[in-house]
Amino acid sequence: MVCAVLTEPTLARALKTARTCAAHCDTFELRVDCLVAEERSKAGTFPQLLAGASVPSRVVLTIRSAAHGGSFHEGEVLRQKLFSRLLLQASECGYPFFALDIEEDFAPLELLEQAALSATTIIRSINDTDGMPADLSVRVTRLAKGTSATVRVAVTPRNSLELLQLCQLSRQLAGVPHSVQGLGDWGKPSRILAGRLGSILVFGTPAEVEELDLVYRYGSIDGSTAIYGVIGNPISHSRSPEYHNRRFAEDGLNAVYLPFRVDDIDLFFELARLLDIRGISVTIPHKEAVIRYLATADAAVRATGACNTVIRSPGEGDSSHYDGTNTDVAGFLQPLLSKLNRDSLDGFRATVVGAGGAARGIVFALLTAGASVLVVNRTPSRAEELVSTLAASAREREELVAGTLDSSGAQTAARFSDILVQTTSVGMHPNEGADPFPEYRFSGHEVVCDIIYTPERTAFLDRAAGAGCKTLTGRAMFDGQAAEQYRRFRALAER
Ligand code: ATR
What are residue 277's phi and psi, to 5 degrees? Predict the structure, then answer.
């Protein structure tokens, strides 16, 4: 079950919000502590208001005290009185509350008895909006032993370790009705997989429940759903979850793709075993570190020292292993070749601007397809280093040389000007106007690519287009590598 948390200041606003997200959830949590004072005493009418508006009228009643991260400051005696009054009011309206959320250290007997009379379920909760208590596991175990209520844990993991511990905790609670979820971006996988890990309820803001439904198809995740994900740090900007989940939905596959913020790759792989993750997209800063987990690495990974796609090969027990590939390479080439209407770059001459991790994959891709390449970089030694690392990938008739990001480099680039690929961060939001290679004058016959996708059209691409060049945006390249990755994920999901 999915529960949308309503934190509006008035019942009318709460009702309006409930209407907008009703299609994406089964229940609502009314946070009475967030209502302005004069509205709180009427909050018992809310389930009836919902029913009148033909919206699901199952409501969890919560009055979170300031001590537990809420907005109720009037003390425990008044809180208990308000709870009692609202339970009564709702029953008198003929629409009792579905559940009552009270914290682990607050369970007045009269209130429990009153809730039982109206068949209102009890939820006992442990909340932490800033972190995750070190003694969480002990407290949860104690709470679960002492109550028949649903145990709710809503805490804020701050790293890979805490997310792993939270997922383990949910598994340990098998047999106890519970709802365990992590808040924030570290906790997001625990919300998407809450049901899969055994929770009977998952809570979210209206925007979160909408995303759970529309992007992650929460209601259709079950024990046999194949799990995929992207690892990176940060991760919240990643467009990959939207892309892969949409493709899975279009193909009618029982699979889901999650964003994992990861600061410790060893702990992530422990989580990957716990969750039985089948495929992993890898983004900054883990593309190099992930390689030591691979049993096999393809030529693109070996040459570039970077892996962006990990596939788990199923096997008996410990014999399962991970295979790594780098779809940035194929993902870059595919749209470029179709733009040129060719199936190879034999005889082409290209300039790559920048010599970082992204440039490495692109230089390898260009060489693999048959082009000669000039690498120009602000720090010339890095360009030279890249050239010497990839020298072995250049075939006999291919040239691979280093140059500088200045007027002399621009002169050399004029001789490597069939294709220009911009791989630095210059021109990326928030520095939209910046041009990494102003010394270079476009003749108009170049095909120009920029790996930046925010903004989609960079100043560099605009200048190229203005000179009459064909251009390829970072978005086309993102879609190219994502499509390549999806092809591999789909093959696994169909097994
Ligand atoms: P990535 O893995 O995304 O390629 P990276 O390895 O940090 O990231 O590489 C960043 C690239 O952008 C490098 O080529 C870097 O040039 P230096 O090697 O001289 O650092 C380039 N870059 C970043 N900021 C730049 C700037 N202001 N002007 C020119 N080049 C810049």
Answer: -75, 130
Neighbours of 397 (CB within 10 A): 9
Q: How far apart are CA 439 and CA 435, in angstroms?
A: 10
CA of 391 to the centre of ligand 1 (A): 21
Across the beta sheet with 309-313, the strand order is 255-261, 226-232, 277-282, 309-313, 321-325, 294-297
Alpha-carbon distance of 26 to 396, in angstroms, equals 65
> From CA 173, how far away is CA 470, in angstroms rounded?
58
Catalytic residue among 145, 287, 339, 470: 287
Q: Whose Cα sits closest to atom 10 in ligand 1?
A: 356
Burial of 130 (0-12, 13-18, 19+ CB in 10 A): exposed
- Kind of pairing between the strands at 309-313 and 321-325: antiparallel
pTM equals 0.90
pLDDT at 319: 65
Confidence tier at 494 by pLDDT (50, 70, 90): confident
Q: What is the pLDDT of residues 298-357, one digit of tens each?
A: 999 999 899 999 999 877 666 679 999 999 888 899 999 999 999 999 999 999 999 998
**Which residues touch 272 (CB under 8 Å, ≥6 apart)?**
280, 312
Please state, in angstroms and rounded to a whole number, the distance separating the CA atoms of residues 380 and 354: 10
Q: Which of 283, 288, 425 to mutate to test the pocket of ligand 1 (most atoms within 8 A of CB)?
A: 425
Q: How far is the CA of 311 from the centre of ligand 1 (A)?
A: 29
> What are the residues whose beta carbons fall under 8 Å from the beta carbon of 469, sequence distance 6 or more?
442, 444, 445, 446, 447, 448
* Active site (annotated) includes residue 145: no
State which ligand 1 atom lies nearest to the alpha carbon of 405.
Answer: 29
- Give tens-digit pLDDT for 83-97: 999 999 999 999 999
**DSSP tag of 134:** T
pLDDT band for position 490 (cuts 50, 70, 90): very high
**Contact in structure between 429 and 455 (CB atoms under 8 Å):** yes
Does residue 452 sit in helix, strand or coil? coil
The residue-averaged pLDDT of 424-434 equals: 94
Separation between Cα atoms, residue 481 and residue 449, nearest integer Å: 14
Q: Report the alpha-carbon distance of residue 375 to residue 480 in Å, rounded.
A: 23
Q: Please state, as a whole number, how many other Cβ atoms lie within 10 Å of the Cβ of residue 369.
A: 20
Q: For 200-221, give one letter per residue: b (16+ CB within 10 A) or e.
A: ebbbbebebbbbbbebbbbeeb
Q: Percent of the chain at pLDDT above 90?
A: 91
353 Cα nearest atom in ligand 1? 14
Would the CB of 356 count as within 6 Å of ligand 1? yes
User: Would you call 49 helix, strand, or coil by DSSP?
Assistant: helix
355: Cβ below 6 Å to ligand 1? yes
Confidence (pLDDT) at 329: 87
